[in-house]
What we know:
The protein is of the alpha+beta class. It folds into five domains: 10-103, 2-Layer Sandwich (Uridine Diphospho-n-acetylenolpyruvylglucosamine Reductase, domain 2); 110-227, Uridine Diphospho-n-acetylenolpyruvylglucosamine Reductase, domain 3, CATH 3.30.465; 230-344, Alpha-Beta Plaits, CATH 3.30.70.2190; 346-431, Alpha-Beta Plaits (2-Layer Sandwich), CATH 3.30.70.2740; 439-476. 34% of the residues lie in helices and 20% in strands. The strands form five sheets. Strands 15-12-14-13-18-20-16 form a seven-stranded antiparallel β-sheet, with helices on both faces. Strands 5-6-10-8-9 form a five-stranded antiparallel β-sheet. β8 and β9 form a beta hairpin. α9 crosses α11 (297-313). The protein is globular. It starts with 9 loop residues before the first helix and ends in a 39-residue tail after the last helix.
Amino acid sequence: MTLKMPEPKPDILARRAEIVAALRAIVPGEGVIDDLDGRRAYESDALTAYRQIPLVVVLPDTKEQVAAILVWCRDAGVRVVPRGSGTSLSGGALPLEDGVLLGLSKLNRILEIDYDDRVAIVQPGVTNLAITRAVEDRGFYYAPDPSSQIACSIGGNVAENSGGVHCLKYGLTTNNVLAVELVTIDGEIVRIGGRALDPGGLDLLGLIVGSEGLLGVVTEVTVRLLATPETAKALLMGFATVQGAGQAVAEIIAAGIIPAGMEMMDRPAIHCAEAFVRVGYPLDVDALLIVELDGPEAECTYLADEVAAIARRNGATTLRASRDEQERVAFWAGRKAAFPATGQLAPDYYCMDGTIPRRRLPEVLQRMDRMSDDFGLKVANVFHAGDGNLHPLILYDANIPGQLERAEAFGSAILRLCVEVGGVLTGEHGVGVEKRDLMPEMFSENDLAQQQRVKCAFDPDLLLNPGKVFPTLHRCAELGRVHVHRGQVPHPDLPRF
């Protein structure tokens, strides 16, 4: 492993049998996995470049068990890594050698669907797509749709503030979650947010969504349901150059058109996606742009003509509009399958996630081409063009010495470029371990210290998902926090102000 993680504590490793026994007392039956082969299944998430077998895996059935596990781990000083479906691409669920991996896959029930209030209340192990499947017969759906939506869990979506194809118009997870139930490291079960559009008080919900398992464990989520649009039309447009496609994206947004989704793929991604799903993508273009418009039929027809005109002005050589729902779904099938399809191009790939201002797309794509030559590794580009969220797939072979390290360096260079042009390190995958050491590129030392103070307020002993997000994790006392233990402060003789 090229990535440095917190050093395991020898005393915790020596107490492994005791820890396993205690967890079995809380979660009886098959809820505790302590054999090597069973634990190996949890050694990484979708960022498979980094692996670590956890000390033990526990799969609770109830929120009360989650609370009991966290209290026991707090009292015993044992670290805890929460995990959803393991589809994270930033290493957010990478285990610790001396840590309990807390899997939430058994909390997988849809608890309530309220069509009048247009909300669904679900447990964290419910998959993203399962919500839409449960309500689509009544004409509703859940908007955020990551490419892994068939497998990724809502709890993981909340942790990483996941996005997806249709988040350009309808927002990320944070814009579609109304409330969460959170279990703190002290075992308290608290509710944050509510069904109301704008609950009173501090916006703690905005703090929890995207907190990457650092502040607590989500055991229930209230999500917003949307009515299925009257019409949805997709345009498939091929361009002679990636720069022309990027310019078309900028002009579509500048014209005041907000598509439901606007995605781009470059030539390598187009060819492998078409070979994978065979939906009729043009193979004689350097860039493919998929634009979906939804709403009233008259509006979609008008906007489709406007988008087509912009595409032609920017060198579109192929332009097809979906004739029916089946063809619209087919247009998206290749984009949704682009990540697994890229596996045809190389034994391994490193999926990045950075966001830039849309107007800088042509420039950034050109500079990434030059970087590809500099690092000697090819890259396929598949990304959410409408909101400037890039997903370069760096191709490498982990069996060739030095290639993983070059892929990491290439990825770091791309993310530094994103920040340089006014963007950010992540759009939807989170920081995890992948971008952790790049946080100083975007935040000052004071910025990071303030963020860590929030962490200390929720988790004073730094037991929840350590090694993620912060490049250097200070003890809470170093940040000026006074820890009160059982009502006693340290050095009570000193004056307090």
